[in-house]
Design brief:
473 residues, five-stranded antiparallel β-sheet, alpha+beta, 20% strand
Length: 473
C-alpha cells in the first residue's frame, strides 16, 4: 500500500509540473548573420557559394601548347609550306598540303599551335563550388547561417540553450539581446528568464526590438482627415483596349502596364502559351477579340493597382489565423506577406505575375509559396514561387502563375488548409467571443486544467484506498 501511495504521489507531482510552461530563455541576436538567418560568405570572390575557377582563370577552357609545333601551328615536316622539302610540286605527305600542324599521335591537329579543351575542374562553367566548411553547410541547408541554424538567434551553446535550429527559436516571453545593445521581450509581456524589458522582439533580424508585428498597413476603406476619398482602380469596368489583343495568339506577350511617374507600377504580367492546358488553349484561341480585349484590359488595370504589403482588417485576421493554425509566433516568422490587388477577374487561362517588393520587407533564403484567396473565401495554393533578392538577401521580386485575381499572400511553407474559415477565426479568440489580451497561450491553460483534474482524481483515489485499508484493519 505504501508503494502504491508513493506511486500516486509521484504521478501527481509529474502531472503538476507538466502543467507549467518551461522557463523563458535568454537569446542573442546572431552576431554573424545579423539576425536574418542567411549565410553570407566572407570570401570576396565567393558568389552564391561559388568561386572563379583557378585552373582555367574563369574561361571555362584549358589551353595547352602543342609540343609538336611548339605553338607555331606549322607542319613540322614542311615548316608550313605544304610542299615536300626540295620539291614544291608535290604536297607534303604529313599535312596533305595544308601546311598546318597535325599534332602528336592521338592528339589530332592543333589550333594555331594550341589545344583548347573544356576545363575538367569547372566543366566549362567558369566557377567551382567553394569548399569552405560553412559554405558547404549553407549550400546543403537552403542557405542557412551555420551559427544560428537559420533562426537569427543564438543560445548559450552546449551548456545552455543549444544552437540546434529548434531550441534557439524565440518564443513569446523569451528575452532577446540585440546587436545594438538593446534588450526586449519577444512577443511582449515579461520574461521569466531575466530582467524585464518594455519592447518586443521582431524575430526578423532588424535589431530594433520594437515590434513582433509587420509594418502597419493602411486600411483601403480609410481616408486621411480633410481629404476626399479617391476612387480605387478596378471599381468600374474599364473600356476594352483592342490594341492589347495579339496578332498571333500562338505567341507569348506582355500586357503593358501604363507608366505613372508619381505611382510607378509594382507589378507586371506576362501571358505564356506553354503554361496553358489544351483546354485553356482552346478557350483562349476561341475568345472573340472584343471579349479577350476586355479581359486583358481588366487584368492590366488590376495589376497596375498592386501594392505589396498592403492589407485590410479581413486579410490581417486571415493571416493571423493561418499563423496560429500553422504554428508560427508571428507573420514575419511564417513569411505571411500580403500581395494586394484592387479588383477581381476570372481570366480562364494562367498568366505570370511578377511583383516588386521593397527591400527588407520579406526575407529570402528558402522556398517561398504563394496562395490566392478567392471571392468566396476559399484559399488556393499556387505552388512554389520564383523570386530574386537584393544584396542583403531580402526578396526583390516574386513571380507566380494565376488564372484569377483577388487577394494573394506568401508563406514560408505549404500551409495546412484543412479547415473552414470559421475555424480560422476561432483560433484568434480561443473559441469564444470574449475579449482576450492576446498574451495568454491556449496550450498551457489546457495543460493546467488537465493537470488539476488528474491531481484531484488521484487525491480522491488515495483517500478511498486509505479509508478502505483502515476499514479492513
Amino acid at each position: 500500500m505504501k508503494k502504491l501511495i508513493s506511486l500516486i504521489i509521484s504521478l501527481t507531482l509529474i502531472a503538476a509540473f507538466a502543467a507549467f510552461p518551461v522557463e523563458a530563455k535568454i537569446l542573442h541576436q546572431c552576431h554573424y548573420c545579423g539576425g536574418d538567418g542567411i549565410y553570407t560568405c566572407d570570401a570576396v570572390d565567393c558568389k552564391d557559394g561559388k568561386l572563379p575557377c583557378g585552373r582555367c582563370n574563369s574561361t571555362g577552357q584549358t589551353i595547352e601548347m602543342c609540343r609538336d609545333c611548339n605553338g607555331t601551328g606549322k607542319c613540322r615536316l614542311c615548316q608550313g609550306s605544304g610542299k615536300r622539302l626540295g620539291d614544291d610540286t608535290i604536297d607534303c605527305d604529313n599535312c596533305n598540303g595544308t601546311g598546318q600542324c597535325q599534332g602528336g599521335p592521338g592528339w589530332g591537329p592543333c589550333t594555331e599551335g594550341y589545344y583548347y579543351n573544356q576545363c575538367p575542374d569547372c566543366n566549362g562553367e567558369r566557377v567551382v563550388w567553394h569548399d569552405n566548411d560553412w559554405c558547404v553547410y549553407a549550400r546543403n541547408h537552403d542557405g542557412q547561417c551555420p551559427i544560428c541554424k537559420g533562426t537569427g538567434y543564438e543560445g548559450d551553446g552546449v551548456e545552455g540553450t543549444p544552437n540546434d535550429g529548434v531550441s534557439n527559436v524565440p518564443r513569446a516571453g523569451d528575452g532577446i539581446y540585440y546587436l545594438d545593445g538593446s534588450y526586449a521581450i519577444y512577443g511582449g509581456g515579461s520574461s521569466g528568464g531575466g530582467s524585464t524589458g518594455t519592447g518586443t522582439g521582431t524575430g526578423t533580424g532588424t535589431g530594433t526590438g520594437t515590434s513582433t508585428e509587420p509594418p502597419q498597413q493602411n486600411d483601403p476603406s480609410s481616408t486621411e482627415p480633410g481629404t476626399e476619398s479617391q476612387e480605387q482602380p478596378g471599381t468600374d469596368t474599364p473600356q476594352a483596349d483592342m490594341t492589347l489583343v495579339p496578332e498571333n495568339r500562338n505567341s507569348d506577350f506582355d500586357i503593358p502596364i501604363p507608366k505613372d511617374s508619381e505611382h510607378p507600377a509594382s507589378a507586371s504580367v506576362h501571358v505564356e502559351m506553354g503554361k496553358m492546358t489544351d483546354e485553356e488553349q482552346r478557350y483562349y484561341a476561341g475568345l472573340p477579340a472584343e471579349e479577350l480585349a476586355q479581359i486583358l484590359t481588366n487584368v492590366r488595370t488590376i495589376v497596375a493597382s498592386a501594392e505589396p504589403g498592403r492589407s485590410d482588417s479581413d486579410t490581417d485576421k486571415l493571416l493571423d489565423s493561418l499563423a496560429v493554425q500553422n504554428g508560427y509566433e508571428s507573420l514575419p516568422e511564417g513569411r505571411l506577406f500580403p500581395l494586394y490587388f484592387e479588383g477581381h477577374q476570372e481570366i480562364g487561362f494562367p498568366v505570370r505575375v511578377t511583383v516588386s517588393i521593397e527591400q527588407g520587407l520579406l526575407n529570402g533564403g528558402t522556398d517561398l509559396y504563394v496562395y490566392h484567396v478567392a471571392d468566396d473565401g476559399e484559399i488556393e495554393s499556387l505552388g512554389r514561387a520564383e523570386y530574386s533578392t537584393y544584396e542583403d538577401g531580402s526578396i526583390e521580386s516574386v513571380s507566380f502563375y494565376t488564372s484569377s485575381f483577388s487577394t494573394f499572400f506568401t508563406s514560408a511553407k505549404e500551409l495546412d488548409l484543412n479547415f473552414q474559415r470559421d475555424e480560422l477565426d476561432s483560433n484568434l479568440t480561443g473559441g469564444n467571443d470574449s475579449e482576450s489580451d492576446g498574451n495568454t497561450p491556449v496550450i498551457p491553460i489546457v495543460a493546467s486544467v488537465i493537470a488539476v483534474a488528474v491531481i484531484a482524481a488521484l487525491a480522491v483515489i488515495t483517500i478511498v484506498l486509505v479509508k478502505k485499508r483502515k476499514t479492513n484493519m
